[in-house]
Amino acid sequence: MAHDRVRDEPAVGLKPNAIGFVDALVIGLNATSPAYSLAAVIGPIVALVGIYAPGVMFASFVPMLLIASAFYYLNKVDQDCGTTFSWVTRAMGPWAGWLGGWAITMTGVLVVGSLADVAVSFTLLAVGLDGWVENDFVRQLLTVLLIIVMTGLCVIGTELSAKVQNVLILLQIAFLLVFVVVALYRVYAGTTGFDSIEP
Fold first, then answer.
1. Does residue 100 or residue 32 have the better pLDDT?
2. Residue 24 has what pLDDT?
3. Which of 41, 112, 126, 198 has a 20 to 30 A CA-CA distance from 139?
4. How far apart are the C-alpha atoms of 128 and 125, rounded to whole Å?
5. Closest to 113 (Cα-Cα) out of 133, 85, 142, 82
């Protein structure tokens, strides 16, 4: 009887092979939000290192590759949705695991609202709904709906969440490539608009 009860209990942890190397790489890249991060830091990077900015941006990919590799091998050894909390707890003890898990939780709580607001605002601007951006009620309502949808995707399952992140990262990269092509074209065509700026 006890044996049957144990056998009927669902397995604890992440389903084996639910996240592959590509998924882990995408999750690592999405955690940095490439388009958002570039918009936020490209100015200070250029101000600090000047013409070496492309090298700095290229080198910043290395930590993401190492993080994705770490997630891949940790997932092979111990599949667990808790990631930081569970893995750090096993490696460094419960206090460090709790601290890591708490830090990630608080970061999510504090940052997710502002990130969702930025996403909604720029999406509305991209489709020409500038008036909606100025309307606080509409913008905040759409922001809350976006948070609910993203939370629902996470609750449904890791595999679906990983697939959505794959699509989102492809969109980010596609738009970044479009931005690069347009920027380079305007520089070489001499239509950047900087000629009219007084030094």
1. 100
2. 67
3. 41
4. 5
5. 142
Q: How many CB atoms lie within 10 A of CB 142?
A: 21
* Alpha-carbon torsion angle 79, 85, 91, 95, nearest 10: -160
pTM here is 0.53
Confidence of residue 141 (pLDDT cuts 50, 70, 90): very high
Residue 45: which residues within 8 A CB-CB, separation 6 or more? 53, 56, 57
Q: CA of 189: how far to CAs of 39, 71, 192, in Å?
A: 23, 44, 8
Q: How far apart are CA 58 and CA 143, in angstroms?
A: 32
CA distance 53 to 31: 21
CA dihedral 130, 136, 138, 142 (to 10 degrees): 100
The helix/strand/coil state of 127 is coil
Classify 114 as helix, strand or coil.
Answer: helix
The total number of residues written for the chain in this structure = 199
Residue partners of 139: CB distance under 8 A and separation at least 6: 117, 120, 121, 124, 132, 133
| Dmax (CA) of the chain | 85
- What DSSP character marks residue 193? S
Residues 6+ apart with CB under 8 A from 91: none
What average pLDDT does this structure show over 30-36? Answer: 65
Q: Is the pLDDT of residue 112 over 80?
A: no
